[in-house]
Specification:
The protein is of the alpha+beta class. Helix content is 28%, strand content 26%. It contains 5 helices and 7 strands; from the N terminus they run H-E-H-E-H-E-E-H-H-E-E-E. The chain has helices at 3-11, 20-27, 44-51, 85-92, 94-97; strands at 13-17, 37-42, 55-58, 78-79, 100-104, 114-120, 128-132. The longest helix has 9 residues, at 3-11. The radius of gyration is 15 Å and the shape is globular. It starts with a helix and ends with a strand.
Length: 133
Amino acid sequence: MTLDQWLEVLNSRVFFWLDRTHLETLMGARAYRDRAHDVIEIDTARLLERERDEITLSPINSGNTMYNPRPRGSRTFLPIADYPFEDRRKARGLRSAVVELAVTHGVAEIGNVVARVERRRAGCAAEAVLWER
């Protein structure tokens, strides 16, 4: 896969962290740590109900190429039915068995699957709840 093809794959998706630790790591990165962030928490069951056929899973942070970059390609994102969850869980533990959930072509009317929106800073409790279902 060429770099242009890979960027096309990434740009065709919207990404969700499945673990708050991964979110905290991103918010704590140098480029983001001094800013407040509006964090959208999704009702995963609703998202799966609506978007199952468009959801793919990844065992890596597909956008991170700076630290210990993992190989990327046509099998980085797999449909739920094809994802080797048990193998990944045994090898990496439950928290890292799946790192990203991506929805191809985005999530139309995302408000229907939002559970809560918080304003947060890295390492801190929510500064404010902006919206809650």
